[in-house]
């Protein structure tokens, strides 16, 4: 059933489509780094941090749901985007900072997804090589071809008109995330059962061979960023909420979708993170799937699921950037046909759906994908990028802006117990962001000393 909203736009989204979008935006490349992250933190702090970040994400996301409309969360004016909510609640001065951060994180995630998808493609190739020639064979995989293939696919998908029209992609991506999460957990369980031994330590303070104390500390900090990144999706929450029907109220529906998505992802994260650590101990790889080559068909299935997931999830992160870019250009040059004239095309001799586009959409979106792919070629290392993205996005977009907007909209009295509790949570998350950022930057600097152009790390 389609309902026309108070702004004249028809929205068809439900709690299930919103849950699919949220799972697609949340479960992605970050989940593959969780065993490595738990391995850096140990059995006590690792699972605690996984659960802590899930509660923080759920709490701040529910507050953000009430900011879709303002000043009243049910009958107020719609804020179609995260940036729109910041403008309505906090004013124009905060918009510049928020829009810069949001676009940077969304784009950085697209870079990370490009690297991860190419890594999975390379892993499939190596898996077949080892299966055919033996595990001692030299099975190198150059990344340039896989990066280009992924980029070409995203150029085609970039012509989807908006977030609501990529719902099918989100459903497919959510299904694929379950597939590779289940397979990864199974492979870790099977590896542990075949060699049963309690691996790892309570706090993992042991120094591995060749690892200095400073490197150990940086890895510890980076692991916090990896886990934070794995839960991050608040910067897309309001864009997802804008696809929902008006009845029941959007904030109630989105809160249910958030509860479902965060609960599901937390179960997967804790299971995979802990089982990966149990299977590999301190030797857990940065991308857990790169640690397996047999049974090759099952490993291939997991990696293919990752690839399909990331192909779809890329568009969920890209659509808000496309929308911001195209709206800004249309307003900047209102009389330029390149940005404003809408053309309609339909396959000849058919009655299929019409394809509407502007020349800006037709050419600028592919150009943006090409640029993103090129940057991924320049930084072809996975784990350090994930940690830095988590560090950059967690505090400002997942914690600070949602808390601050809610305080303003709900008129939380300064100095009250609730206000103090929110500020304390904000400060804790700021510290996490700062130290995880330091660890990730240090790791990136180290990788830059050894990384080769177009050479993906496995």
UniProtKB/TrEMBL annotation:
<dbReference type="Pfam" id="PF01490">
    <property type="entry name" value="Aa_trans"/>
</dbReference>
<feature type="transmembrane region" description="Helical">
    <location>
        <begin position="388"/>
        <end position="408"/>
    </location>
</feature>
<keyword id="KW-0472">Membrane</keyword>
<protein>
    <recommendedName>
        <fullName>Amino acid transporter transmembrane domain-containing protein</fullName>
    </recommendedName>
</protein>
<feature type="transmembrane region" description="Helical">
    <location>
        <begin position="41"/>
        <end position="61"/>
    </location>
</feature>
<dbReference type="InterPro" id="IPR013057">
    <property type="entry name" value="AA_transpt_TM"/>
</dbReference>
<feature type="transmembrane region" description="Helical">
    <location>
        <begin position="296"/>
        <end position="317"/>
    </location>
</feature>
<dbReference type="GO" id="GO:0006865">
    <property type="term" value="P:amino acid transport"/>
</dbReference>
<feature type="transmembrane region" description="Helical">
    <location>
        <begin position="144"/>
        <end position="160"/>
    </location>
</feature>
<feature type="transmembrane region" description="Helical">
    <location>
        <begin position="166"/>
        <end position="189"/>
    </location>
</feature>
<keyword id="KW-0813">Transport</keyword>
<feature type="transmembrane region" description="Helical">
    <location>
        <begin position="257"/>
        <end position="280"/>
    </location>
</feature>
<keyword id="KW-0029">Amino-acid transport</keyword>
<feature type="transmembrane region" description="Helical">
    <location>
        <begin position="362"/>
        <end position="382"/>
    </location>
</feature>
<keyword id="KW-1133">Transmembrane helix</keyword>
<feature type="transmembrane region" description="Helical">
    <location>
        <begin position="15"/>
        <end position="34"/>
    </location>
</feature>
<keyword id="KW-0812">Transmembrane</keyword>
<feature type="transmembrane region" description="Helical">
    <location>
        <begin position="428"/>
        <end position="448"/>
    </location>
</feature>
<feature type="domain" description="Amino acid transporter transmembrane">
    <location>
        <begin position="11"/>
        <end position="443"/>
    </location>
</feature>
<dbReference type="GO" id="GO:0016020">
    <property type="term" value="C:membrane"/>
</dbReference>
<feature type="transmembrane region" description="Helical">
    <location>
        <begin position="104"/>
        <end position="124"/>
    </location>
</feature>
